[in-house]
Every structure is written in C-alpha cells, then in structure tokens.
Predict the 3D structure of the following.
Amino acid sequence: MSSIFSDHPNRCDCAFNSRKLPISISSTTSAEMLKPDVFIASILANHERVDNKINVYALNKYDCMTMTDDCIPGVLSSIVNASKDDQVSVSSISFRNHAIGDAGAKAFVDIIPKTFKSREDEENPATMTPKKHNIKLEHLDLSGNNIEADGCTAICEAIKKNSYMRSLNLSCNPLGKGGGYAIAEMLEGNISLQSLSCGDSEMTMDNLIAIMSVMRRNELVESLHIPNCRTFSLQEDLAKQTSRMLEFNSNLIDLNFDRNNVGDEGAVLFANVLQRKNSSLKRLSLAANHIGVRGAESLASALIRGTNLESLDLSNNRIGNDGAMAFGSALTRNKQLRSLNLKYNSVGDEGLAEIAVGMNENSSLSDLMLWGNKFGGASSREFLNLLESRFEYFGVRIDFLPFVVDGEYQVAETSAEKTVRE
C-alpha cells in the first residue's frame, strides 16, 4: 500500500484561517453515500471552536458512506493535507462501526510518527519518521470494525514509539490471539497511553493473562475497558487474574469489566482486594456479571470498611432484596461513593425502601440509578419524600420520578440529568 502522504485522486485540499488548534474528527456509518474524503474535507471546513479547541461533531451533523480499506488512504490524505499549513493540529480521530480491516488499520501507522528515540534511532537517525504533517494524534477510536491481528499489531507497534497517544479503542474487532499479544507487548513498552479499550475482541485467556500480568507493573494506564471477553475457559480464572492485577497496580483509576460472568466468587475477589490492597481505583463497572446476593453483600461490606471507589455500576445483575439491603446499610456509613447504579437487579419494594433509608443519612452520593426494579408503595413514598428534601438540597440525580396519584405512590422512568421536578 502506498503512503497516505502521496497524492491521491480523491484528495480535497482545505484552507484554514484560524490559528493552530487541535481538532477532533469523528464519523459513523450512515445511509447517505457521501465519499469519505469529501466528507472529511467538509467537516474540517465546518469546524467549531469551543474552549480554545476546534471540535468537529461529525456524528450529529454529517453523513458518510461506510469506510473500507480502499478509501482509508484518501480519507487520511485529506486529513494530512489539511494539517500541512500548520493552522490546525489534528488530535483525535474516531472511525467507529465501519468496515476497516487490517490494510486500513495499517494506513494509520503513517500518522502515528515515531517520536521516542531508542538506542537504535540514535545510532541510525534514518529510522526516525520525518515530520510531514501537523498531526499529534492523542486519541484513536477504531471500535466496531474488522481489524484482525495484523492491523492491531501494526497500530500497537507504532504506539510503542509515539509519545503523543493517550487513548486507544479497538473494542468490537476480531483481534484474536495475535492481536491480544500485540496489546500486551504495547503495554509492556508503553510510554504515553493512558486509556485502553479492547473488549469484545475474541482474545484468548492466555492473552488476557498476559495483559493483566503487564498491567500489574504499568504506571501510566489509568483507564482499562475490557468487557465481554468471551473466553472459552472458566471466567472465574479471568476474575482472579484481574483482582490479582489490582493488588499490585497503583495507578489504575477506571476499570470496566462488564459481561465477563464474574459471578459471586469474582465479586468477592474484587471486594477483598478493594478494601485491603488497592487504593487507586475510583470507578468500577461490573454490569451484567451474574452477581447475586453474596457478591453484593461483599461489595457493600467493602464500601463500609473503606475503599476509594467513587463510582460502582452493578446494573443488570441479580442482587435482589437482600443485596439491596446491604447497600442501604453501606450508604449510611460510606462517605466516598458518588455514583451507584443498581438498575435491573430484581430488587423489590422492601429492598428499595432500605436504599431510601440509607440515602436519608447519606450526603455524598450524587447519582443513584434504580430504574428497572420493582417499586411499590413504600419505596415510592420514601423516595418522593427524599426528592422533595435531601435530593434537592444535595443535588442528587436519579433515573426515576416518584409521584402520587389519587393517593397511590408510583414511579416513572426519567432522565438522570435533573434532580428535582420542575
């Protein structure tokens, strides 16, 4: 494949009159069949400046045909040409849910220049990538494409030698075993990456063990999203490896481990490490993990005994009334948690009422998600009283709206953006 910096028949030149500022480019599939390079030129020409940055919201404003390997060189060529005049710095590219394969992924290597000098580079300066553009890519999102091991390896190798890249999302790609090892090797030599998403990617258990092993000593990555691993071995093994990683890692802040069949045993492992070994993790998501009462009680106990968690997502599990009661008790004593998501957990009126009792003594939680459970009269009444008093005062956001009609207390689903009724 020729370099994206060579002339391309569908290239569109763009002129900018603004001063040099970072630009964010994103795109999704659409029914409209607009050529991708023309599409990119269009969004570059119609950028918006917000807080001293130029941001392009292509998702909401522009339409583009599905991108394939054949069109990626032209698309990237348009971006490169737009940045050559030093008027715009491209910092973020998001091409989600297209049909980009290994060849298209490899084309991105040309816009991830080598900026880190190794001993080999010092001995042979020709190995350093010459500057041909003003792209300092910090965020790359290629989730939902057809990238396999070769494309993943090429991107990971480039990132290992680049000091700009901050976040990479390769979720929902068939990366496979080869791609999994490439990610582990990238993390081993990481010099800049702070956020990685690689779930739903057909990696093997050996891959995941390698990634968790490297993450034990990684001091840069703060956010790791690895949901729905779909390995063919016991998922409890994965939970053990991940909790073991948390014992040693002191830098990770955000962990998404949704849909990994953690179960009660895995939840207990997470709870134990959070209250005894790990003090850095602030956001933990364990949604849709078959966690029941025992796991919920262990996590609630960890909140009581002391963790640094600020956000816990247990939505779409099965904690029931007993699990909800445990969290109700935890809310009376925990002062660190800011967000709790217990949506769709088979919690009945009694359990929800206990959470309301806990909230009546809690002044730290600002987001509470409970929709999808079985509200009755008692819990609806308790939450209506809270909504009109403490929730309004402390600015608590909820995803349900309690109300009373003809003397009957009920709830309705609502956006969690507002805390009180207008």
About this structure: The longest helix spans residues 235-248. Confidence is low (pLDDT under 50) at residues 1-23, 28-33, 48-63. The radius of gyration is 24 Å. The CA atoms of residues 29 and 66 lie 5 Å apart.
